[in-house]
Design brief:
globular; mainly alpha
Length: 197
């Protein structure tokens, strides 16, 4: 993996990060259509930066950090806005934030054993996409009209799927960490059993 700063995927990730505070401000002042547009951009650019990284061979260490960081910040900012506006219950925000708190332990164990964060799993990516699609629809659902009813139903479907997959990805990451830690312990035991010259 190359250590590059200015790549097209990284530019898109930077743009997503810059949009987070603007998005949150728009939500809090109830400019839902502008906030909706930023969320749509975030979802599309999230898909596009991964596609470009593979297509242009521009995968970078910075990109592997920026991409999930931007996703998480959008999820947290959206949850905050949705809870403040009374669109989603507080318990949903706590369930999603609880997953991030839980993931701190496996990541800590990886660091202790000299490993970096695990690569983003397909299930984790699918969960993030579900949530990034769900939140704009939930914003549309607070309005009146047939489109709002449909948006609310589909938005909640994506929210439930995304939350389930988010926790399932945490289980898969935990299993990966467990395998690596066990392999390290076995390796250490074998080295200790070798006769010294």
């Amino acid at each position: 993996m190359k250590d590059r700063l200015w790549t097209w995927p990284n530019v898109l990730s930077f743009a997503r990060l810059l949009g987070v505070p603007i998005f949150l401000w728009l939500v809090l002042i109830k400019q839902d259509w502008w906030a909706f547009g930023i969320l749509v951009f975030a979802g599309l650019s999230d898909w596009l930066d991964g596609k470009l990284a593979r297509m242009l061979d521009q995968t970078s260490k910075l990109g592997t950090f920026l991409d999930p960081a931007a996703d998480r910040l959008y999820i947290f900012a959206t949850l905050l806005g949705l809870v403040v506006r009374g669109v989603v219950p507080l318990w949903l925000a706590l369930v999603l934030i609880g997953r991030e708190v839980y993931m701190a332990l496996p990541l800590y164990l990886l660091r202790r054993h000299g490993y970096g964060p695990p690569p983003v799993h397909f299930v984790g990516k699918a969960a993030t996409l579900c949530l990034l699609y769900a939140f704009p629809l939930l914003f549309l659902g607070v309005h009146s009209g047939t489109y709002a009813v449909v948006a609310k139903v589909v938005g909640w479907a994506f929210t439930i799927w995304g939350t389930g997959l988010y926790w399932w990805a945490a289980v898969l990451y935990t299993a990966q960490v467990r395998q690596l830690v066990r392999a390290d312990h076995r390796s250490g035991e074998l080295k200790g059993a070798e006769p010294r010259p």
